[in-house]
Amino acid sequence: MSARSQDNPLGRLIAPLVKPSVFDFWAGHINSAWSWERPLARVVARRIEAQGTVTLDLKANRHCGAIQPGQHVNISAEVNGRRVTRSYSPTHVSRSGKRLSITVKQVEGGKLSNHLGHHARVGDALEIGPAFGEMGLKNGPAAQDGPLLFLAAGSGITPLICLTRALDQAGFPQSLTLVYWARTRAELCFMAELRALAARQPRFQVHFVLTQETQRLSGEHAERLNAELLTTLVPDLAQRRVHACGPAGFVDTARRLSLGQARAFLGEAFTPPPALATSDATGTVQIKLALSGRTLEVPAGEALLPALEAQGLRLPSGCRMGICNTCSCPKQSGTTQNLHTGDREDVPTSALRLCVSRACTDLTLDL
Length: 367
Prior knowledge:
Order of helices and strands: HHHEEEEEEHEEHEHEEHEHEEEHEEEEEE
Number of strands: 21
Distance between the termini: 23 Å
């Protein structure tokens, strides 16, 4: 039983009499978000946000923790009889923290994104993990030192629209320019809201950049991120703190153009950087699973998470990029390599991130 349940007088009274799973089963027939201790949120509204993208408005139960604008949460749902978890950045978080929205773009082959986009309905319950991520505004929207610049590409708009809305609620204590890239106008999310906000708020400017649109409207541009475009749209870059979110290549370009030019830079990519090429990543290695007693053979050059999943293991995971730590597990012995940094680790650890680690030697894991 969770600490929250123990702090609840009713929870202490009935805890010896009922299993949490049994309580959840019957309570879910009354309200899908009722649970003994699981953090759940019920879908209270859904709408098409853009081409191939849907927004789900959620009402969280009392077990859900605090979420700050700009952070991520792991969302879990049952898809074809299996629990699937992926990370999403809320696009709206209420002051109470009990109302939030996620905006989901359907990805080809994406199990959860397509389930949420096509099949999630009002009344459904989703499980919500603890918030994580460093994309927020330090000390809150009202405490920002100097003007801001947000650079968003594709789904990278999700944490940045949440931060924009938080700044709007705070009365825009500092000015903000948002530059938002998409392939076509039909794929832009929140376009009408952002244009309306720019029209009524003198401290907010928005520019849309459409890389595959044949005709452009007022306030729209066509170039990919480059120094000339940035100088044209943001002539006072030297005064601004930059937040960038999008694919890894986009964030790398934003970082290169900002460092030494802007006051500060914070970037977050929603796609992992390319895995490092490794000369010794050939053949197979043995993975001993200490808890189950199994021994598996996996490719030496493959990340451990997909390699173990291919062997039939159902492991918890979230971002699959080494950020959320959902897939972390203890390693008792063996040498692993981080596929992003190239760092090797040959000592036991309590939190080996399976999604970004490969086995260099035989391993023993607490699985």
